[in-house]
Write a structure and sequence with these properties.
The protein is an alpha+beta fold. The chain contains 12 helices and 10 strands. The protein has 2 domains: about 140 residues, 2-Layer Sandwich (Beta-Lactamase), CATH 3.30.450.20; about 180 residues, 2-Layer Sandwich (Alpha-Beta Plaits), CATH 3.30.70.270. Strand 7 and strand 8 form a beta hairpin. The N and C termini lie far apart (about 85 Å).
Length: about 325
């Protein structure tokens, strides 16, 4: 084992940019690796030949438990193919260094995020892999949180406008490829400016927050909801024709209409209020581009407004294309 350790220490330090001529003894290398705050290991044929204390701490195993153990035992099944291919390339020397991130499995069953550097080197005439492991679970959680914050509206916890356009573009490409229907709902709270002016923005925010909850609770898992801006919201409904989308939209409208709000007025008096919304919808057509698609839903919403609000209105293109008897104009309210 001593020869392997010396080779390992040298390979690790070279990988870290250390000039071995400036180091006095192999004992110094050993102390550095044993005290290193990175997990370090060596494998041959996919099995452990060496692990340092930090590696064993990260994964919760003893030295004896890891000796000759298959490294694949420490990686979640869904990432096994990437790990196997990486090790194969490194051991034969196809690549000299590579860095990957994996979901790893501790001895206690806990799944953690790790970053692994793989370095090819020769030991006893055979290819081996030196690995440097860092646990990055907290970093990944922070990254995920920042990503969510970048695409999420803080007040309603729905996706934001930027994410809406990004996702809609993907859904349009998907519906073109698979020829599946795709519908879009655009809604706006009726007379919301008056409500804000009367009761203040704090009470108005409560309404927006509640509406976000209502939308989330009344769409399917495959649907995605967004705060489009101000009091406007939108829902993308994949694999959904406009008549089915109408049912979803009308369900949201009814639940919102029947929700009671208790805003405070002057001198702290509490009053009861009900609000309504106007909803427009459109179904994607291959002749549309993204801008047309959104505009048709927006035009339909505007028509719901001028008809008095508290309505769901499909764009007229949808109605004209419907077979007789499937849709009656009376359904427009």
């Amino acid at each position: 084992m001593e020869g392997l350790e010396n080779t390992l220490y040298s390979a690790y330090l070279i990988n870290e940019g250390v000039n071995l001529e400036h180091s006095k003894t192999q004992g110094i290398y050993k102390v550095l690796v044993e005290k290193c705050t990175d997990g370090i290991y060596v494998i041959q044929s996919g099995r452990f030949r060496f692990t340092n204390p930090e590696f064993r701490r990260i994964f919760g195993y003893t030295h004896e438990e890891l000796t000759d153990r298959d490294i694949r035992d420490l990686i979640v099944p869904g990432e096994m193919e990437l790990l196997t291919e990486t090790i194969k390339r490194m051991e034969v020397g196809t690549e000299k260094t590579v860095r990957c991130e994996f979901k790893a499995l501790r001895k206690d069953g806990k799944i953690i995020d790790v970053e692994i550097d793989f370095v090819h080197f020769e030991y006893h005439g055979r290819g081996a892999v030196l690995g440097v492991v860092r646990e990055i679970t907290m970093r990944k959680r922070l990254e995920d949180k920042l990503k969510r914050m970048a695409i999420t509206d803080e007040l309603t916890q729905l996706y934001n406008r930027r994410q809406f356009y990004s996702q809609l573009e993907k859904e349009i490409e998907r519906t073109k490829r698979y020829h599946a229907p795709l519908s879009l709902i655009l809604l706006d709270i009726d007379n919301f400016k008056r409500y804000n002016d009367t009761h203040g923005h704090v009470e108005g925010d409560k309404v927006l927050e509640k509406l976000g909850e209502i939308i989330r609770n009344n769409v399917r898992r495959v649907d995605t909801a967004y705060r489009y801006g101000g009091e406007e919201f939108t829902v993308i409904l994949p694999e959904t024709g406009w008549i089915e989308a109408y049912s979803v939209a009308d369900r949201i409208r009814k639940v919102f209409e029947n929700t009671t709000f208790y805003p405070k007025v002057l001198h702290g008096t509490v009053t009861r209020r009900h609000l309504t919304m106007s909803i427009g919808l459109a179904e994607y057509n291959p002749t549309f581009n993204l801008e047309n698609f959104v505009r048709y839903a927006d035009d339909a919403m505007y028509k719901a407004k001028i008809r008095g609000g508290n309505k769901v209105v499909p764009h007229e293109i949808m109605i004209k294309g419907t077979k007789p008897g499937v849709w009656q104009i009376s359904n427009l309210g």
